Amino acid sequence: MKTHRKSRRGRIFVATALGTTLLAGAVATAMAGEDSPGSGNSAVPALPKSATTGIGPVSGLIVGYKSKAREAHSDKAVRKSIGVAAAKTGEKLSYERRLGIGAALVSLGAAQPAKDVIKVMNQLRADADVAYVVPDSQAPASGIEPPLDADRFNLPSDGTDLTSKQWNLSDPKAGMDVPDAWRTSTGKGVTVAVLDTGVAEHSDLDANVVPGFDFISDHGTGKDGENKDNANDGDGRDSDASDPGSFAKDGQCPANEATSPTSSWHGTHVAGIVAAADNGKGTVGVAPDAKIQPIRVLGSCITPSSDIIDAITWASGGSVPGIPDNTTPAKVINMSLGLDGRCTPPMQAAVDQAVQRGSTIVVAAGNQGSKKAPEDARNFDWASCHNVIPVAATDRAGDRAFYSNFGSVAIAAPGGDTTNSPEDGILSTFNSGRTAPASENFHFEQGTSQAAPEISGLAALMLSVNPKLTPAQIETAIQANARPIPGKCEGGCGAGLADAARTVEAVAKGASSAATGSPSSPPSDSPSGSPSDTPSSPAAPPASPSPSDGAGAGTGQAATGTDLGDCFHNACQVEVSAGDTIGLDGAAGVDELRIDSVSGNTVAFTGSSGNGAQQSSDSQSAPGRSQINNLVVDVISVDGDQAVIRLS
Q1: Global pTM exceeds 0.90
Q2: Choice among 266, 386, 443, 569 that is catalytic
């Protein structure tokens, strides 16, 4: 679904040396997996090095097992496998629980230094049945939200109609033209899950809130802050998704984690942008008749990614062990959260499975645009996952907001810039409490966290008039009907500034250019917790030829190709063996990719350009990603002497 990649038009031709066949349903999601330690030109930061450079000490690991492994289906087998690793490393490891994606959460007992984490990861990876091992880490909203002075940016809840201050909805230059969209749709019948800090009571929200869930699992303090009190409500996971406040007392969280002495009410603000009711007072959301499902994943301390992974699964209607199923699954999931780093295999698995269930996932692109080395959204974890809609932020002048990440984004929406005036920010529902909840009010904020829920609200408007829209169709329609960015956007802002009226009108008239499609099945050897294939992308190419079409007949003749330009967002998937060659047109800097060997769990390959004059070799274990020039090679799975790879 992601559209930030440049279209590399050309055709993939597979010259079969050992009976290679193109897989049916060649358009598939690419998994942002971990690179092998020897990858010299990796598209994703290599693991386990990221344990030292990106996350610091961690107290847990997420382990994915191959689908045929006993551990993929047996908790007893997981415990035995972990016990072996514990004995060999001398670390206190324990099996904590099974995630909704099927992967196992392994506890290290306490926060461990990076060197010990690496030792355990390497030992677990030595097991041939292990597909991936990644640290269990994530960040709170404070990691992406520029802090604002609460008093200056507050407005009282006194019954005044404040919609005139919501320039983001109606400003003819920099707004999204939302009021005109309301003539066709107000979002009725659509539920939007807000994965955030929870929601505080507010008269502009209460009528539109449906039961959610609190997925924060850390809820106790221990020696040296080893067991952080992240939940701030005295208990663990439960059905109460209200926000008790995200403030942190001195010593409440581990010393290495950024905390705040005041509460952000971030989830309340985001929820109001999506669906504050049109009740004649206060603010109004983009989809005022949609329902909000608050799902609490952000608390006082760093939130482990395992909680967010389970929350995505539950929000989209998937099952999470030990948690009652969601009776009102969300068709849209908003994620105004994230951290520096690339999408990991379990993150991607959660996204892919949710999209396959029909949920559209909208993600904030991140707020590192003002750094000395401004960041592309591809370096922001959830925004770098495939099959999400990453959203950049613009200001009231129509320029890319100074803080916004850029580049690998699908679309831009107003995020505000309060540098000169609070009213240049985005006004939404809030709470006056400095720590615990107090009286309701309204607040101006800025950030990609504010831009993302505008797109989530727009998705709700679209689904209300056409409930059959797929996540791919929603993104395509939003992009196809966007306006050019009114100002400047260094680095790129996707398809432009979202236009709600044009998009909803197009969907209502059946004018969306997205292709129909249904979820396809994952490869048979995909690991537990690995991404499943998702609905076909817009303008999907025809199904790949079967062996009878010439591919895999062993003749050495070029098979019918798959147009990379048609793949666009997704990668083209192919099964290969040693000796196979894949011909390209050089647009990605590679004219031919040769498969040198397939053995163990690793594929070795060589890319050549300039009639073979320039060659680059690399190897990649499964699942994982490597890159030669601009050609991305995802190794999905290896089975004996054959491997499934995706090229994009």
Answers
A1: no
A2: 266
Task: Report d(CA 215, CA 313) in Å as an integer.
Answer: 11
Residue 22 contacts by C-beta under 8 Å, 6 or more apart in sequence?
14, 544, 545, 551, 552, 559, 560, 562, 574, 575
Structure tokens at 266: 């971030």
pLDDT tens track for 89-124: 999 999 999 999 999 999 988 878 888 889 999 999
Span 569-580, mean pLDDT?
69
Residue of 127, 136, 196, 352 with catalytic role: 196
pLDDT digits (tens, 9 = 90+) for 464-498: 999 999 999 999 999 999 999 999 998 899 999 99
Distance CA(196)–CA(497), nearest Å, equals 25
Among 24-33, 52-61, 298-307, whose mean pLDDT is lowest? Answer: 24-33
The catalytically annotated residue of 449, 520, 532, 626 is: 449
Rounded to whole angstroms, how far apart are CA atoms 292 and 192? Answer: 5
Q: Determine whether 490 is exposed, middle or buried from the number of CB atoms within 10 Å of its CB (0-12, 13-18, 19+).
A: exposed
Active site residue 449: yes
Q: State residue 603 phi and psi, 5-degree precision.
A: -115, 130
In 3D space, the residue among 336, 335, 190 whose CA is nearest the CA of residue 275 turns out to be 190
Question: For residues 364 and 362, what is the distance between their CA atoms, to the nearest angstrom?
Answer: 7
Residue 239 annotated as catalytic: no
Known catalytic residue: 266? yes
| DSSP state for residue 565 in the 8-state scheme | H
* Cα first-last separation, the chain: 13
